[in-house]
């Protein structure tokens, strides 16, 4: 099996730097867009055979060193009692945003093996398809990010309602995060049991917080998820965006790999994180829209800052954008492999 991704997660020597991209399956690929003409996003997520197909599409097209389960971080919310939809042009919309303590108390701590069985079946199908060839990454959303969707009712620019709840009613905030954390931990545990060889925790919007607020309102819940997962013996990737001021706190909360976005130079991030974790990142995803020479200079800059140290996984600082040309994805993947050959 191509195990350079798993070896890099463990900070072991590799023959070349492994590369995979967040949202490597998605709208930039014609094959995916063709499926979306027949199925909604939720149908793709909730039908294991379709989730398998979407997961496989980028593996057939590019030399990625890892597959990531095709799913969505919001899937646990509906069985918990918070129904939602993906509205065209708007993204996720929570039907009844959380406004009261009673709503928080009414959320169910679900059993993913029953309530999200289709996700676990997709993991099993994908693992059987790629076993012996490519490692599989499972994932879930972090408590701050999930809570923000629940409270804001969808995407947000300033997270006003989320922070208002944190500051004005911390007891209710922590109750909400405890419930979400219990579900996230159970879901990632179940994905590992189903065959995921690594897991990533996406707390994508946590960079909206100051270091003090992170320590007070988020870190205890992240530790409650990440510390038990690290005992499972598979790599655990801890990811957020806008986290330049939070890197040390994220490391201390847990994770064998820390994801770094493009706002922080990779060498600076690694110096601050120390040698006890692997580092994933950190090219700006909009560089994939740039002219080829500019794109490859950006990729080289990341590799130069990593300096072939053990424990680097090349990735974007966030997900691939829908308008990304597929030929640029192929160019970066091939360039990273060629330029980083040991």
Primary descriptors:
TIM Barrel; globular; 7-stranded parallel beta sheet; 49% helix; single chain
3D structure, described in words:
The protein has 17 helices and nine strands. It has 342 residues and is of the alpha/beta class. It has one domain (4-339): TIM Barrel (Alpha-Beta Barrel). Strands 1-4-5-6-7-8-9 form a seven-stranded parallel β-sheet. It has a two-stranded antiparallel sheet with strand order 2-3. Strand 6 (236-239), helix 14 (247-253) and strand 7 form a beta-alpha-beta unit. Helix 9 crosses helix 11, helix 13 packs across helix 14 (247-253) and helix 16 packs parallel to helix 17 (326-339). The longest helix has 25 residues, at 170-194. The mean pLDDT is 97.
Summarize the structure in short:
This protein has 342 residues and is α/β, with parallel strands linked by helices.
Helix tally? Answer: 17
Shape: globular
| Unreliable parts | none
Strand numbers in spatial order across the main sheet? 1-4-5-6-7-8-9
Which sequence of SSEs, written as H and E, runs from N to C?
HHHHEHEEHHHEHHHEHHEHEHEHEH
- Assign a percent range to the helix content: 40-55%
Layout of strands and helices, then pairs:
Elements lengths: L3 H6 L20 H7 L4 H6 L1 H14 L5 E2 L8 H4 L3 E4 L3 E4 L6 H6 L5 H4 L1 H14 L5 E6 L1 H10 L7 H9 L1 H25 L3 E5 L8 H7 L1 H12 L5 E4 L7 H7 L3 E3 L6 H8 L4 E6 L8 H15 L5 E5 L9 H14 L3
Parallel strand pairs: 1-4, 4-5, 5-6, 6-7, 7-8, 8-9
Antiparallel strand pairs: 2-3
């Amino acid at each position: 099996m191509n195990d350079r991704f798993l070896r890099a997660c463990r900070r072991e020597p590799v023959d070349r730097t492994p590369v995979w991209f967040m949202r490597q399956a998605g709208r930039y690929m014609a094959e995916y867009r063709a499926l979306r003409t027949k199925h909604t996003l939720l149908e793709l997520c909730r039908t294991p055979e379709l989730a398998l197909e979407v997961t496989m599409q980028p593996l057939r097209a590019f030399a990625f060193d890892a597959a990531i389960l095709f799913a969505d971080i919001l899937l646990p919310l509906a069985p918990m009692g918070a129904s939602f939809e993906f509205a065209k042009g708007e993204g996720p919309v929570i039907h009844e945003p959380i406004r009261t303590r009673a709503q928080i108390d009414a959320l169910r701590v679900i059993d993913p093996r029953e309530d999200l069985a289709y996700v676990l079946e997709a993991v099993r199908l994908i693992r059987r398809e790629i076993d012996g060839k490519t490692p599989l990454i499972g994932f879930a959303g972090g408590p701050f990010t999930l809570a923000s969707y629940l409270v804001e009712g969808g995407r947000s620019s300033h997270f006003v309602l989320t922070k208002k709840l944190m500051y004005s009613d911390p007891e209710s905030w922590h109750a909400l995060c405890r419930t979400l954390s219990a579900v996230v931990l159970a879901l990632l545990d179940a994905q590992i049991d189903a065959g995921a060889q690594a897991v990533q925790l996406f707390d994508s919007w946590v960079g909206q917080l100051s270091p003090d607020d992170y320590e007070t309102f988020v870190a205890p819940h992240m530790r409650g998820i990440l510390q038990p997962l690290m005992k499972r013996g598979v790599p655990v990737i801890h990811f957020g965006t806008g986290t330049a001021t939070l890197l040390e706190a994220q490391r201390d909360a847990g994770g064998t790999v820390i994801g770094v976005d493009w706002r922080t130079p990779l060498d600076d991030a690694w110096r601050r994180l120390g040698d006890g974790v692997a580092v994933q990142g950190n090219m700006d995803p909009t560089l994939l829209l740039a002219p080829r020479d500019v794109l490859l200079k950006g990729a080289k800059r990341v590799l130069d800052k990593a300096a072939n140290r053990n424990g680097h996984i090349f990735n974007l600082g966030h997900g691939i954008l829908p308008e990304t040309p597929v030929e640029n994805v192929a160019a970066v993947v091939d360039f990273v492999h060629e330029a980083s050959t040991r």
